[in-house]
Specification:
The protein is built from eight helices and two strands. By secondary structure, the chain is mainly alpha-helical. The chain has one domain. It is globular, with a radius of gyration of 18 Å.
């Protein structure tokens, strides 16, 4: 018989599935931001022509077109989504930051998520962010510490034990 996290039985959260709190999730995201910034730095040094196309600082007036300007600004967001989607789907079940702080991404029953769920979860982060980041801060008030993106994707972020 499979236990359900949505049950009102208090022992399920205490003994089986322990959601990661906001502090751990914020620390993991901070580590990932530092890691990705370091990778972008290395990319700019090793392949300046390629990396300048995506990460070059420029004013809108200097760009060839509005589409190109948007693409250059969106590349970091796309990099973050691709990185998070791939890492959350792997057997490690989380980004390098999540691994470092000891948390994993799972479905609502604590199992590994599939690739489609991982991509959707990370795309839904745009919704969590676009409304002044409120979707991320929702972790502070949800009883299962879920952000909007977790609720939409049917995922949890759990402490590893």
């Amino acid at each position: 018989m499979q236990e359900n996290l949505y049950s009102d039985q208090p022992n399920i959260l205490e003994n089986k599935i322990i959601p990661a709190d906001f502090g751990l999730r914020f620390l993991a995201a901070s580590i990932d931001l530092i890691f990705l910034s370091f990778l972008i730095f290395l990319l700019k040094i090793s392949h300046p022509g390629f990396s300048n196309y995506f990460f070059k600082e420029m004013l809108h007036e200097q760009s060839d077109s509005y589409t190109l300007w948007v693409m250059k600004r969106s590349s970091l967001v796309v990099l973050w989504i691709v990185y998070s989607s791939v890492m959350d789907f792997t057997n490690r079940r989380g980004t390098i930051g999540k691994q470092f702080v000891g948390i994993v991404v799972s479905d609502n029953q604590g199992r590994k998520i599939n690739f489609v769920t991982s991509v959707l979860r990370n795309l839904y982060k745009i919704i969590s962010y676009i409304v002044f980041g409120l979707g991320f801060f929702y972790v502070l008030i949800d009883r299962k510490n879920r952000g909007w993106h977790d609720m939409l994707a049917g995922t949890l972020v759990l402490k590893k034990y």
